Amino acid sequence: MMTPGKFIVIEGLEGAGKSSAVSAIKTVLNHRDIPFISTREPGGTPIAEALRDIVKQGMANEHVCDSTELLLMYAARAQLVETLIRPALANGTWVIGDRHDLSSLAYQGGGRELGMAKLKAIKQIAIGDFEPDLTLYLDIEPSLGLSRARQRGELDRIEQQDLNFFERTREVYLQQVAEKESIMLIDASQNMAQVAASITAILIQYVDNI
Ligand SMILES: Nc1ncnc2c1ncn2[C@@H]1O[C@H](COP(=O)(O)OP(=O)(O)OP(=O)(O)O)[C@@H](O)[C@H]1O
Ligand SMILES: [Mg+2]
Fold first, then answer.
1. Contact 134, 1 (CB under 8 A)
2. What atom in ligand 1 is closest to the CA of residue 10?
3. How far apart are CA 60 and CA 76, in angstroms?
């Protein structure tokens, strides 16, 4: 039987450096000749990308309710997991995810204060027990991350939340790091070369220990 691929996820607040981290992971996998695809959430399939636009931009003259945002995130995730991630893994291809379920726990559960019980219930309905094999969480002070994100361009609907929102989001991230061995914390306040070096070291160790 084919050895299943591994699902590696990058997590963190706005401007933590997730997109940059994905490049460091790709470099390691390419060096080892490991086949992979990369995705982002919300998004990654045509339907999920359409849902992403609603979540990120909203709609003129209509407020996105918190529970609507939650369900849109999970609708996008269910579509991505079923049509892309699971089939890839089953066929031995690794998947690099720019965000996954932990983002919802943190942003909708913490930031929006919907709470862990609600999040766990909806996760179960949407994707069951599906979990990443390894998560790299890029930890950063919200103000520093947002200042980096701002330099890159206009802030979207979620990026425009106040600092308290991101403090609550970060708290859930840190709580989950403490609870789960499959989540590694990386200090994302380091410079880009240092962050990339930390990611590369973790990945090499992970790949070599399979
Ligand atoms: N360690 C770092 N030090 C300084 N600047 C950084 C660092 N990492 C990334 N940046 C810069 O900060 C900006 C945001 O980085 P990036 O897009 O990788 O973050 P992100 O986590 O993907 O953000 P988003 O959540 O908005 O997708 C970019 O302009 C990037 O070049
Ligand atoms: Mg990004």
1. no
2. 21
3. 21
Give the closest residue to 22 by CA, choosing from 45, 42, 38: 38
Torsion sign (Cα): 83, 91, 94, 170:
positive
Give yes or no for a contact between 122 and 70, defined as CB atoms under 8 angstroms apart.
Answer: yes
What tens digit of pLDDT does each residue of 104-137 get?
999 999 999 999 999 999 999 999 999 999 999 9
Structure tokens at 70: 């939650």
Ligand nearest to the CA of 149: 1
Which one of the ligands is nearest to 153 CA?
Answer: 1
pLDDT computed for residue 1 by the predictor: 74
Question: What tens digit of pLDDT does each residue of 61-110 get?
Answer: 999 999 999 999 999 999 999 999 999 999 999 999 999 999 999 999 99
Q: What is this structure's pTM? A: 0.96
Cα 37 to Cα 14, 40, 75, 175, distances in angstroms: 23, 11, 21, 29
Separation of alpha carbons 52 and 69, rounded Å: 10
SS (H, E, C) 50-74: HHHHHHHHCECCECCCHHHHHHHHH
Which domains, and CATH codes, for the chain?
A: 7-208 (3.40.50.300)
Distance (Å, whole) CA 149 – CA 48: 23
Name the nearest CA neighbour of 102 among 128, 82, 120: 120
Give the residues surrounding ligand 1 with Cβ less than 6 Å away. Answer: 12, 14-20, 148-149, 151-152, 188, 190-192, 195
